Amino acid sequence: MKFRSRNMKSLIKNLMWKHKPFWRLYLRNFVILAVVAMGSVFLACLDEDFTTKVRGYVWKIDIKTLAKQYKDESSLYIDRTQADHLFNKVKVLCFILTIERKLTGQVQIVNNTWARRCNKVLYVLCTDHKAPDLLSTCSVGESRNHLTGKVRYAIKHSYEHYMEKYDWFLKADDDTYVIMENLRYLLSHYPTNKAGYLGYHFKVHIDQGYMSGGAGYIINRQALKQVVEQGFRRDSCLQDGGDEDVEMGRCLEASNVQVFSSLDKFDRETFHTDKPWQHIWGIPPGYLNLYSRNGVRKGADCCSQFSVSYHHVDAATMAFMEQMLYRTSVYGRHGLTNATNVFPQRFLTGH
Fold it and tell me: Counting beta carbons within 10 angstroms of the beta carbon of residue 226, is it exposed (0 to 12), middle (13 to 18) or buried (19 or more)?
């Protein structure tokens, strides 16, 4: 027994010391794997495209079934009296930028969640399909380089066909999620006969700043009229190319369209440039600290109780937000519908 024990100890010692470089190799590989794993988690928090691709390899989400389920609210205990009142009082046309390949995926979720709460919705894209909610922009082109042209086309189309039918005109992307009831509540504090627009306010490039395109921005009827009749006709901004939100900001400013504040009475943002958890955790893109007119907050102060929009929301996250916002209630707690002075009127100029 002693001989075997001595041999065993000798064998272990030889493995530990004669092959020491292999232990170092294993340790190095472990460190590399740990770094890759941590980097993946970090990217997943910041990059929605990365998250979507990784999730697509792990499991498939039945977008069509989800879209159909979220359209049916017959099993919910809800009182929509106030929301329905504002639906009829504050009429919003939503034009949503997308591309044809997303019509059978992301657009289905958008259409059966937040977009169905618009008074009118137009999907702006290059397509040969014909439908009342499709606005074809093939004459403009279809790529990120043509976003300015697509938005100008949608605004002119709204001016020519819908200006007298709706009070406000919302520009959004297909990965923007909008809480329409809160948007209408915010808009109800502002006039439609005084040209103005709202969104997440950036302070760069233009004297009065401009609104983030991804978070969505909304112009009223008078602003629609002035930007088409003045800014567009004078070519105060590019007809196509450039950054869409910056170019629209230029034309709106040149048309004497004023910025209306979208902050609540506690100076919390209602429109948001990124996903909810990025604003809550305080990890938005680095540029935001330089661009934001109102400063970047995190935690409970990141977002208004009556938040309006979030950006970079893929189909799965959109379904999750719909579930938590519209299909989940906390018994005994209800939002006040008679709250006053939540959105004090503030008209902004310059920086």
Answer: buried
Three-class secondary structure of residue 246 per DSSP: helix
Between CA 33 and CA 42 the distance in angstroms is 14
Under 8 Å between Cβ of 82 and 338: no
- Taking only the tens place, the pLDDT of each residue in 12-57 is 555 554 555 555 556 666 777 777 777 666 655 555 555 555 655 5
Closest CA to 248 of 176, 348, 154, 125: 154
Nearest to 51 by CA among 276, 298, 313: 313
Say what the pTM is: 0.83
Q: How many CA atoms lie within 13 A of 6 on its CB side?
A: 3
What tens digit of pLDDT does each residue of 137-177 get? 999 988 889 999 999 999 999 999 999 999 999 999 999 99
Q: Please state, in angstroms and rounded to a whole number, the distance separating the CA atoms of residues 248 and 105.
A: 28
